[in-house]
Amino acid sequence: MNSNWKTVSALLFAVAITVIIISDLRNLLRGEPPFSIPPGERLHEVYPEAHSFRLDKSGSWPCLAALDAGGNEIGAVFLSDHLPPTVRGYAGAMSLLAAFDKNGIIHGASVLKHSETPAYFSMITGAGFLKRFNGENVSGDFSDLDAVSGATITSEAIKKDLIEGARLLAHERYGIKSQSTGKSSSKEFFEIASIALLLVLASVAYVMRNRRLRHASLLASVIILGLWLNCSLSIQQISTLAALSIPAASGAMLLLLIFALISAATRRQIYCHMLCPFGAMQEFMYSLVPYRLAPSQKLMLWASRIKFLTLFAVICAFFAFGFKAALMTEPFGAVFEFSASRYSMAFAVTLLLASGIYKRFFCRCLCPSGACLHAVAKTSAALQHFVGKRHSVSVGTTHGRLLNGWRDILFVLLLLLALSAMAGVGMQQHYEIAQQEGKTQAEQRKFEKVNVERIREGVYNKKLSDIKAKYWKTADEDE
Length: 479
Known about the structure:
By secondary structure, the protein is of the alpha+beta class. The chain contains 19 helices and 7 strands. Strands 1-2-3-4-5 form a 5-stranded antiparallel sheet, sandwiched between helices. Helix 10 packs across helix 14 (342-357) and helix 12 packs across helix 16. Mean pLDDT is 81; it is low at 391-397, 440-450 and 466-479.
């Protein structure tokens, strides 16, 4: 039976790697997308005072020149896709649209597309983070513009990269010089230093096999990675890295990802055992519940293989079919992300309750991130085997019946419930993404009820452009 699983796992591994390579080659051959001009209403959203816009590719970076009624340039609108540095949030690159005038005053900024979970991104939009840029000068230090609590990585990435990109373009087009501030760099240094100390603590606890140090590491991970930074390692970052892209602009997140992959490659699962905040929460629940669910060894062995099937399904869904919601099924953010949907919160709470009777239920049976790190460790071991460094691998027993009594049946029902809930979270995330993308323009293009004569007067006096006039609603129209 074990030989059959080895054959199946090797086949799934080969198919997953092939899917990833084909997807990466397709993206590389596609090349950099051409400069696409956003719709007129999106341009007027970030620069409402402009009469029209003109594409300008004469400089180092393409942008849109904002013109007044007389055709004179009064400012510039740019896309972050075509201006360094690339804006990278928690889950990958983001596309921003922003505008500033010839004096360097920012008139507006908006997000065109992103890869964040709907709940995570709603924390930024709900806090009105992008509106805080309005009225600020690109030459300022932006020291009073704080990150959004719970979405620190993405909001800091938007702040840092948007400001730096605007400064580059403002200096090239209008000669505006800016003085950089050290506040953001010192804050990022503090975050990286905190992560580095946490990694040292986890490594020492792993090497010394010290129980108290391990508990201290898990508690620190809940505080730092969970409550403070909300940057647990997830399949989103790993998939972004597999897509040949930098997962996040945060140095702390990159340090954590690199450490997890390197430790897995050396066959030391330090992140899963010592650093995972959700894993720590599961162990805490396990210590509170006195009842224990002990399924048979054969059933536990088969249950531990489900997470590899979950990982395979996630890879195929995202890389082969572009199903972004497949990367958002993990419950890590829902525990520390208080704006998560009720369904995601219910899923996370259910997993924590299940972990009360079966230790680390999600980690051992369903976690695609843990399965990916385990696959890295297995691949490293296989490579060492081929170069002559053989290592013995212990294999769990599979003797006996698969189901032995009501405890095993209860465990199987719990697994089926968790898998169904995980699929439900993915579908719900997909629905929210589609709803968010479909309503973005409608929500940001607010109609106003005015009199027809006021519209005509505004257009005649050049106080209202023809483009903008199309989206105004007359007072005598029905709702």
